[in-house]
Protein: Putative ABC transport system permease protein
Amino acid sequence: MLRHIFRLIWNRKRANLLLLSEILFSFIVLFGVGTLLFTFGQNYLLPRGFAHQNVWRLNISAAQGEKMPRPVLDDVLRQVRALPGVLDISLGSPNTPFRFLTMNSEFRHGNRKSDITDRYDADDRYLTTLGLTLREGRWFQARDDANPRRPAVITQNLREALFAPGEPVLGQLIQPADQGFQATGQEEYQVVGVVENVRPGSDFSGPQSGMWLRLVPYDTTHWEGAAVLVKVAPGQGPALQQRIVRTIAGVTRQWSTEVRTLEADRLDKLRVTLAPLAALAVVGIFLIVNVALGLFGVLWYNISQRRAEIGLRRAMGATGRGIGHQFLLETMVLTTLAVAAGLLLTVQFPLLGAFGGPPRVYGMAMLLATGVVFLITAVCAWQPSRLAARIQPAAALREE
Structure:
């Protein structure tokens, strides 16, 4: 039977070429959409690596042309920490989680070099404020004041990039990976701890390599602005936000303060992330529907062009059900050929490591594309096959 089907397909190779092309195009589109869906879904299920609930972000800015002395800033933080409802407070860099602001660089250790890595500044209370999870070593402490090198805490994926499996990391030195860089004691960072991977980008972003560098307390730096994270008790809201703003204004009215929750930042980032994904989904659905309509039209046209053949087969004893099964089987064989060609193309992605995606995601996308393509072609071929099964031999031969 299959040999006969292949002969029929070959005899109509020009007409079937369009059908093969449409099915192949559908497969590739579905593979691309499936890869994105599985990638984002896999990222969404990963642990975030920190606790953003009940954490607020304070943006404290000095007046235009003014500076904020660090001792005054430290006094402000002490007063805010003493407010009822405030559990902890931490000073850091402005690239807090979910913000549209990044500070990144590349780092090296020996002959190993990292990819782009997020770089943060953080004080000694940052770990408990944001809820990071230590894997090795410790967070910054007062004893680091005597360290001639700047202490650093890195994420697990940065550890894997810069150090061999099982290699001790605590106390090791990391340098910026600039071209022609000559390391000195001030340009080296000493690793004191390793934390779990974090996903500060969005709900659908993957783990990002990160490094936190210690902010030296009680220095003499004059800042133009400060980014502060405040961990509050559950249930706190606008009333505490107003007390924080009034407390800072009571120290100096030359500074302005903006208070936002990390949850609000997360939702803003989520909306921006979902907009292109929704547009891509609409485009993908539109293409698939158009391909399905095209397949349906091509199959319908093929049957109308083969009425004489159908009438002759019925006159020679073929049943209506057999005719319908034949056309459905032809479509499935064509689909198999198109999917095989699509698999030969898409299997190159995991083999070559294209776009850095894990092979498991590509494999699941191939399975999804294969299943949906066979489903679409089966549905599109069902009604034309029923039409072919209903053709009466006398009517078909009389028309011919």
